[in-house]
From TrEMBL:
<keyword id="KW-0464">Manganese</keyword>
<feature type="active site" description="Proton acceptor">
    <location>
        <position position="262"/>
    </location>
</feature>
<feature type="binding site">
    <location>
        <position position="262"/>
    </location>
    <ligand>
        <name>Mg(2+)</name>
    </ligand>
</feature>
<dbReference type="GO" id="GO:0046872">
    <property type="term" value="F:metal ion binding"/>
</dbReference>
<dbReference type="InterPro" id="IPR036691">
    <property type="entry name" value="Endo/exonu/phosph_ase_sf"/>
</dbReference>
<dbReference type="InterPro" id="IPR005135">
    <property type="entry name" value="Endo/exonuclease/phosphatase"/>
</dbReference>
<feature type="site" description="Important for catalytic activity">
    <location>
        <position position="232"/>
    </location>
</feature>
<dbReference type="InterPro" id="IPR037493">
    <property type="entry name" value="ExoIII-like"/>
</dbReference>
<feature type="binding site">
    <location>
        <position position="7"/>
    </location>
    <ligand>
        <name>Mg(2+)</name>
    </ligand>
</feature>
<feature type="active site">
    <location>
        <position position="116"/>
    </location>
</feature>
<dbReference type="InterPro" id="IPR004808">
    <property type="entry name" value="AP_endonuc_1"/>
</dbReference>
<feature type="site" description="Transition state stabilizer">
    <location>
        <position position="162"/>
    </location>
</feature>
<feature type="binding site">
    <location>
        <position position="162"/>
    </location>
    <ligand>
        <name>Mg(2+)</name>
    </ligand>
</feature>
<protein>
    <submittedName>
        <fullName>Exodeoxyribonuclease III</fullName>
    </submittedName>
</protein>
<keyword id="KW-0378">Hydrolase</keyword>
<comment type="similarity">
    <text>Belongs to the DNA repair enzymes AP/ExoA family.</text>
</comment>
<dbReference type="GO" id="GO:0006281">
    <property type="term" value="P:DNA repair"/>
</dbReference>
Amino acid sequence: MIVTTVNANGIRAAVKQRSETNLGMLPWLKETEADVICLQETRADDAQLADALAPALADGWHLASAEPHVKGRNGVAVLSRTPFDAVRIGAGAEEFAAHGRYIEVDTAGVTVASVYLPTGEAETDRQLEKERFMAATQERMAVLLDRAVRGGNDAVLCGDWNIAHTENDIKAWKNNVKKSGFLPSERQWLTDLLATGWVDVVRALHPDVPGPYSWWSWRGKAFDNDAGWRIDYHLASPALAARAVSARVERAELYALRWSDHAPVTVEFS
């Protein structure tokens, strides 16, 4: 199974972007070898998303989505080449049930979730909201991990976690130690999560190196200088993580060829 995650930064914009040069998201979907694709920040309701992805659905992709409760914000989805056996929206906390930040599917014998953590803002209510979502996600992950180790479905949670875990996961880490996304408490949360048994598959396959980054600001020369953040993760249950044979960031060759400020992150499991 090959699993890809990407924050689309607005599905309708991603689909339209560079459509005239055949380098946008829809051509990428035609070429990808992925079996499952997790999308975040679709910024579309279910009908708009299905309309934007209509050519891909006509090619046989199955779509499950969780639309945002605020127009033009959030939204997560999963595309799969095999039908879904089950679809679950929300990580369990009532506060976030309709926020379009978490969707979980069972497909081909594996549980796959698309997750989009809030951006947050240090020392504000936005950060407190992010922390509550983190707590809800952690509780759900504990259930999934327990199920996996007891012989149930293996699981992988993919998405934009809006946290760079270590200094190797952000180019300009010294400038961001007091900012949301690289706060000590957020980084510790990820450390604690991994200590329970979840595996950061990309880092496991690319140990002790800077990056590979998956997000770069649209501004300045961040992309050209590879001054990015690695915030798009595949967190897999232990048995599934042990089957990971490769991981890569599908970074565009040029700034002008990007259809999102994130690049797809792809993991192949044997």
